[in-house]
Amino acid sequence: MNVIVTDSPEQAFQCAADMITDEIRRSPTPVLGLATGRTMENIYQILVQKHEIGALDFSGTTSFNLDEYVDLAPTDPNSYHHYMQDHLFAHVNMQANRAHVPNGIAPDLEVECTRYEAAIHAAGGIDLQLLGIGETGHIGFNEPPSAFDSRTRVVHLDEVTRRQNSGMFGNDPDRVPPRALTMGVGTILDARRLVLVAVGEGKAAIVNEALNGPISETVSASAIRLHDNATIILDKAAASDWKRTTR
Which residues are responsible for catalysis (predicted)? Predict the structure, then answer.
């Protein structure tokens, strides 16, 4: 596990965007695992800027998003389908049939989860998986406890997570859907490379727990320490507790 600490959030975003850029340039048909959230918006903005100046070609790229809310249509402005269109897909030359997000309104959600796993496998697996970390220590929507061999499935969201995500829902946690589809921890660990990004003092405690606490299903992000090729990108604020613990 490689931990990179940057002086500012902007440098952390740039570092992650550069790693994704390198992955896209390395292979004619890269497969990316993508995430959502405020941190990711900044990373995607950099990637879009690279594309707009002709420095990055997405035409051969395939992507799989980590998760999606149950019962939100792709056209719903709060869906992750809509988020990805707004922040990345509509601004780059990725083919629409290569951009995958779980279908939260599928008639049979279990079948959808199985289909999503099969699609990842058919694409050859994920080359680079981008991750954030939630207040509960979740990656994707793998709320505690989540088995480290779990696969794409339907999950119930913790009240802490619903509160954390309520900004897109008028700051009303009750409007945040209580269920979601998420790649499992095992699905995430199957990626050939993991890149987790966290910025801000609000992430410091859970980052420290994930990186220095027990490797435990109660903190799903701790599973990344089991991966052979994981990079953690933190700004100074997010790394503050971790640095104090490891001096």
Answer: 67 (proton acceptor), 138 (proton acceptor), 143 (for ring-opening step)
pLDDT of amino acid 205: 97
Alpha-carbon gap, residue 80 to 22, rounded angstroms? 25
Contact 102, 65 (CB under 8 A): yes
Is 67 a residue of the active site? yes
Q: Please say whether the beta carbons of 70 and 76 come within 8 A.
A: no
| Among 67, 112, 127, 209, the one annotated catalytic | 67
Question: 60 has which bridge partners?
Answer: none
Q: Would the pLDDT of 144 be above 50?
A: yes
Identity (one letter) of the amino acid at 171? N
Q: What is the CATH number of the domain that holds 197?
A: 3.40.50.1360
- Which of 112, 117, 138, 190 does the annotation list as catalytic? 138
Residue range(s) defining the domain that contains residue 83: 2-246
Instruction: Spot the catalytic one: 127, 143, 190, 235.
Output: 143
Question: What's the chain's Rg over C-alpha atoms?
Answer: 17
| Residue-level pLDDT at 185 | 99
Query: CA neighbours within 13 Å on the CB side: how many for 139?
Result: 33
Respond yes or no: is residue 143 known to be catalytic: yes
Q: What is the number of H-type helices and E-type strands within the chain? A: 8, 10
Amino acid at 60: G
pLDDT of 92 reads 99
For the stretch 111-124, pLDDT in tens is 999 999 999 999 99
How many domains does the chain fold into? 1
